[in-house]
C-alpha cells in the first residue's frame, strides 16, 4: 500500500455514542445520515457499543425502522460496501421511538433508551420551527446530559431577526459549545483542502492578497430546477438558499487571515472578520434571474406554482472585502438552477507578470488556481510553459491537475461524504467545520439590506434559457470590469 493510500484509509474510531435522529423517516435522514453512518461502520470508525436511535411521528416499531434503513442503504450505498454481516451488525445498533414533539408524546420512551454515560448527540433533521420545542423537551425531560450536543440544519432563519430569535431559543437550553450548525459544504474534502493548500504550503500564502490576485470566482451551478421543492424555494430564493450560507462560507475560507491554530474558535473568529468586512452590495453589483421552460422541463414559474413570483433561481454578485489584504480585488459569486452543467468550483486568478521577457505575449494566459468541489473533486493549477517543438519560444497554458480520486489511489475514490465527516466531528466534539451563532447573524446582517433593496425597488429577475449560463446581464457584470466568467462545464 502506498503512502497516499494509507493516508486515505487511516480511520480513527470515535468514543461510544448515542445518536438520536429526530425526523429519522425524512428525506435527509434516509438519503444522507443513515447511509453515511453505515459507511462509517464499514470503515471501522463506529465503536462496538455505538447506537443510533430514530425518532419521528410515524408509528413504527424498531424492527420496521431497521427494515426501512436496510432499504435506504441498499439504495444509497455502493453495492461493493454492502457486506451482509456488516449490514446486520449495523442494523442491530438501530432503535426507534415514535415521538410527537408538539403533542408531547414519546419522551419517556426516548429517555429510557439514551444512555447518560456515553457521548450524546441529537440531530434535528426537522423543520426549524421545531428546533425550540426539541431543545426544550430534551432538557425538561432530563434526557440531555451536560455534555450533550445538538445538530441543527439550515435554513437557520430567513433574516437577521429570525436568526437572532432562533439563536436565543437554543441558547436558553444549550451552551454555544454544544450547538453544531451544519453546512455540508464545509464537510467536502476539497473545501478542507483549501485550508491545507493555503496554510500548509509556503508556495501560496505569500501570494494570497490583492497585490498578486486579480479576482476570485465562486460558482455553484446546477442542472436541475426547483422541482418538488418549488413551494419552499419560492419563499427563499438563490440568495437565501445558497449565498448566505454555503457560498459565504467558501468566501470566508478564501479571504480569511491565517488563524493562530487549527482550532474551532480560532478559525471561526477569522471567518467572522471577513463577513463583517464585506462592503454593502450596490444595485449594479447584482444580477438575478429565473429559468424559462426548455430542455423538456417547465420554467421556474411553473415549478414554483406561482405565476407572479419575483423569486430568483439565479444570482450573480460582485463583492468586495474591505481590508488591507483584499483592497481592490473583487470576488464574483454566482449560483443558479437549470444551468448548462452541474459544477461547483472556486477559481483564483492571479495577475499578469509585471514585465514579459518573451516576444510571444499573445500566448500569455493568467495563472489560475481552481478548486473543484463537484464533480471530480480536486485542485488544478494553470501555468505557462514553452510549447514543445522548434520555432522559437512559444508559450502555452497547461494544467497541473490533481484529481483526488486519481492522486490518492483507488481507495481515495470512495472518499467520505460530507455528512459522514461532519457527524463524526460532532461525536468528537470538534466544531471547526460548523457555523457559530455570531457568524450566522453577521451573514444575515449583510444579506438583509440586499433583499430589502430589491423589494423596495420592485426589481424582478431576468429570464434566462434553461441549459444556458444564466442571464445576459451576468456576463456584463464581468465584462464591465474587463473580465470573463469561467465556462460552466463538468
Automatic annotation (TrEMBL):
One of its GO terms (cellular component) is cytosol. The lineage of its organism: Bacteria, Pseudomonadati, Pseudomonadota, Alphaproteobacteria, Rhodobacterales. Pathway: Carbohydrate degradation; pentose phosphate pathway; D-ribulose 5-phosphate from D-glucose 6-phosphate (oxidative stage): step 1/3. Catalyzes the oxidation of glucose 6-phosphate to 6-phosphogluconolactone. It comes from the Bacteria. One of its GO terms (biological process) is glucose metabolic process. It comes from Phaeovulum vinaykumarii. Keywords: Carbohydrate metabolism, Glucose metabolism, NADP, Oxidoreductase. HAMAP family: G6PD. It is an enzyme of class 1 (oxidoreductase). Pfam families: G6PD_C (PF02781), G6PD_N (PF00479). This is Glucose-6-phosphate 1-dehydrogenase. It catalyses: D-glucose 6-phosphate + NADP(+) = 6-phospho-D-glucono-1,5-lactone + NADPH + H(+). One of its GO terms (molecular function) is glucose-6-phosphate dehydrogenase activity. Its EC number is 1.1.1.49. The keyword NADP applies. The active site is at 246 (proton acceptor). Residues 195-486 form the Glucose-6-phosphate dehydrogenase C-terminal domain. NADP(+) binds at residues 57, 100-101, 154. Residues 20-193 form the Glucose-6-phosphate dehydrogenase NAD-binding domain. Substrate binds at residues 184, 188, 222, 241, 337. Belongs to the glucose-6-phosphate dehydrogenase family.
Amino acid at each position: 500500500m502506498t503512502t497516499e493510500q494509507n493516508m486515505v484509509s487511516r480511520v480513527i474510531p470515535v468514543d461510544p455514542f448515542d445518536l438520536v435522529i429526530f425526523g429519522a423517516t425524512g428525506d435527509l435522514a434516509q438519503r444522507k445520515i443513515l447511509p453515511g453512518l453505515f459507511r462509517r461502520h464499514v470503515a471501522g470508525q463506529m465503536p462496538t457499543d455505538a447506537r443510533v436511535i430514530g425518532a419521528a411521528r410515524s408509528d413504527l416499531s424498531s424492527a420496521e425502522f431497521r427494515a426501512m434503513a436496510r432499504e435506504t442503504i441498499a439504495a444509497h450505498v455502493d453495492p461493493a460496501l454492502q457486506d451482509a454481516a456488516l449490514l446486520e451488525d449495523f442494523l442491530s445498533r438501530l432503535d426507534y421511538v415514535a415521538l410527537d414533539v408538539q403533542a408531547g408524546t414519546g419522551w419517556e420512551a426516548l429517555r429510557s433508551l439514551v444512555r447518560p454515560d456515553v457521548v450524546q448527540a441529537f440531530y434535528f433533521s426537522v423543520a426549524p420551527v421545531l428546533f425550540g420545542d426539541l431543545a426544550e423537551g430534551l432538557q425538561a425531560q432530563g434526557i440531555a446530559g451536560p455534555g450533550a450536543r445538538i445538530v441543527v440544519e439550515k435554513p437557520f432563519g430567513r433574516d437577521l431577526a429570525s436568526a437572532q430569535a432562533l439563536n436565543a431559543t437554543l441558547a436558553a437550553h444549550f451552551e454555544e459549545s454544544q450547538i453544531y450548525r451544519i453546512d455540508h459544504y464545509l464537510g467536502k474534502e476539497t473545501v478542507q483542502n483549501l485550508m491545507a493548500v493555503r496554510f500548509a504550503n509556503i508556495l501560496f500564502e505569500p501570494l494570497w492578497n490583492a497585490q498578486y490576485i486579480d479576482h476570485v470566482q465562486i460558482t455553484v451551478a446546477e442542472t436541475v430546477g426547483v422541482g418538488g421543492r418549488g413551494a419552499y424555494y419560492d419563499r427563499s430564493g438563490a440568495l437565501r438558499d445558497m449565498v448566505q450560507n454555503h457560498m459565504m462560507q467558501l468566501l470566508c475560507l478564501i479571504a480569511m487571515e491565517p488563524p493562530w491554530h487549527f482550532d474551532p474558535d480560532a478559525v471561526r473568529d477569522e471567518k467572522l472578520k471577513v463577513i463583517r468586512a464585506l462592503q454593502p452590495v450596490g444595485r449594479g453589483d447584482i444580477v438575478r434571474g429565473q429559468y424559462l421552460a426548455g430542455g423538456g422541463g417547465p420554467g421556474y414559474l411553473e415549478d414554483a406554482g406561482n405565476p407572479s413570483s419575483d423569486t430568483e433561481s439565479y444570482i450573480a454578485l460582485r463583492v468586495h472585502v474591505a481590508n488591507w489584504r483584499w483592497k481592490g480585488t473583487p470576488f464574483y459569486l454566482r449560483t443558479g438552477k437549470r444551468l448548462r452543467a452541474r459544477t461547483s468550483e472556486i477559481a483564483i486568478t492571479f495577475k499578469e507578470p509585471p514585465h514579459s521577457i518573451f516576444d510571444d505575449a499573445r500566448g500569455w494566459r493568467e495563472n489560475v488556481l481552481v478548486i473543484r468541489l463537484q464533480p471530480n473533486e480536486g485542485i488544478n493549477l494553470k501555468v505557462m510553459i514553452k510549447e514543445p517543438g522548434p520555432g522559437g519560444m512559444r508559450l502555452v497554458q497547461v494544467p497541473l491537475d490533481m484529481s483526488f480520486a486519481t492522486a490518492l489511489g483507488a481507495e481515495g475514490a470512495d472518499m467520505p461524504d460530507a455528512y459522514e465527516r461532519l457527524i463524526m466531528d460532532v461525536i468528537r466534539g470538534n466544531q471547526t467545520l460548523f457555523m457559530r451563532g455570531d457568524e450566522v447573524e453577521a451573514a444575515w446582517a449583510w444579506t438583509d439590506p440586499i433583499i430589502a433593496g430589491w423589494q423596495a425597488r420592485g426589481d424582478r429577475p431576468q429570464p434566462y434559457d434553461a441549459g444556458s449560463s444564466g442571464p445576459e446581464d451576468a456576463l456584463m457584470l464581468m465584462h464591465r470590469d474587463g473580465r470573463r466568467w469561467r465556462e460552466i462545464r463538468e
